[in-house]
């Protein structure tokens, strides 16, 4: 279980402090899917990076299975069982996709395993295994490869930062099925940052972040009306892509 207590994060720009997150608390139980949504610039990606150790909290605590990981490094958190897919994945010139998947797995992967992973995220495996993870790949291709590096092994908690970003409709539908499968297995906690209604509807709970604060958090059936406009107008939270699916 992930437990976050009174988390705050601030930065300093031009000699002035700016608070990005303010007293954020939440939990992700084992096997639970929590979707974080809200307007752009509200602090959603900052939460993901704090969980992974890319940023370190100004105040508050982060616990994984009861262990305080607030000051742990990215490496320590990965060893503890946290997997992370960036919103904008890094590129590694000179490294093949097959090598990247093997590094993520922690062992040299046979060809058929790599091919299976790439197929799960909508890529034609034979065409990609020996390609470099560089600028020749589109943003959507990079995003799917990044997600494959998380799917390659079991985690206690998987964090996906806007997995739909840059993905075509067909690949998005495949990813939705993968998330459904992960959720059905109930073996890993899932924290997804998303604007997509199809992803939000899969969640056990939804948390809305606005202005660096949690404004609503609860079961999906309670929160969804606020996002779809059935209770209040909240159109900026959801993408219009779902209308085409």
TrEMBL record:
The keyword Transport applies. Keywords: ATP-binding, Nucleotide-binding, Transport. It comes from Sellimonas intestinalis. Residues 2-236 form the ABC transporter domain. Pfam families: ABC_tran (PF00005). One of its GO terms (cellular component) is plasma membrane. It comes from the Bacteria. The keyword ATP-binding applies. This is ATP-binding cassette domain-containing protein. GO terms for molecular function: ATP binding; ATP hydrolysis activity.
